[in-house]
Amino acid sequence: MVNTTNAKANLRRSKLIDAAKTKTGKSKLVNIANAKAKKTQSAAGPAGSQNLRAKFQHASRPLHEMVRITLQERIQSGAYSRDIALPSVPTLADEFGVSAITLKRALRDLKMAGLVRSVAGLGTFIREQERFVLNMSAALKLSGMKDDALRSRRSLRIKLLSIAKSEIQEPALLPFNPPTQIYLRVEKMIFVDEIPIAFDRAFISLPIDQDFIDSLGARFIYEIMRGRQMPVISNRMIIDAAPPAEDAQVALGIPDGYPTLRKCYHFVAGAPPIRVYGISVSPFDRVACSLDSSEAIHT
């Protein structure tokens, strides 16, 4: 009986020892993983941190912008893993030699730019980037974003910001030689999968009827013209990279100096003709353009 009791006690003791070893082993593995992640996601040691701090101290930009630019460069270079949360606010603030408030503002700018996302209780993670592709050969035939969204099975929403009468005072539209007159100015935001991808400002020649104006809140201009079977007389576009104007920057929620893809357009349709001049601005990492030259030429 005693031997049986001792055997059971020894068995229990052996299990406890094995469990402790297993727990210790797991802890070591976790510590090793954390150490590797920290090594990957941090600057190269104290010297790297000192260099960053010196760089920030002598920069002409505000501190939060310098932090945001540095984090953005790391994200785009692959220095941070998409599967592991970014280092904590205190860790990054200490590395950069800035306050937690400055670090949080930089992260907020990155969130607004669509580069990172916050997960409650887990931290900040890199957001998967997938650009919305605009078919420019279709755009030459006055098709556009809604058609592209339908083809890619993505949701699209238009938000009307303002309608007013004004002259064209946009230097980017000068290559189209717009006549000096009063136009209907229409400003919209376009969302794809609820992500803001474009700020659009269009100038439509007058007069236009009230039904046309009432349709602008939910439809693109080209949609309205196509629905009225208005023949396209001419269509021109200029696509370039440019810093956003302040109103576009605020509407898109992107930080100062963030690069954008700018599409300036001018088309004429209908009889009597309606002239449209416009600018569409998109963050460079949310939109891309494709062009099938054979389709554009032969259709």
Element pattern in H and E: HHHHHEEEHHEEEHHEHEEEH
Our count of domains comes out at 2
Number of helices: 11
CATH class categorisation of the largest domain: Alpha Beta
Task: Write up what this structure looks like.
- There is one protein chain.
- This protein is an alpha+beta fold.
- 42% of the residues lie in helices and 26% in strands.
- The strands form 3 sheets. A 6-stranded antiparallel beta sheet has the order 4-5-6-9-8-7. It has a two-stranded antiparallel sheet with strand order 1-2.
- A hairpin with a 3-residue loop joins strand 1 and strand 2.
- The chain starts with a helix and ends with a helix.
- The N terminus and C terminus are likely disordered.
List the helices and strands and how they pair.
Elements: H1 2-41, H2 45-57, H3 63-77, H4 89-96, H5 100-112, E1 116-119, E2 123-126, E3 132-135, H6 136-139, H7 145-151, E4 156-166, E5 183-192, E6 195-205, H8 210-215, H9 221-227, E7 232-242, H10 246-252, E8 260-269, E9 274-283, E10 287-290, H11 293-298
Parallel strand pairs: 3-10
Antiparallel strand pairs: 1-2, 4-5, 5-6, 6-9, 7-8, 8-9
Helix pairs in contact: 3-5, 4-5
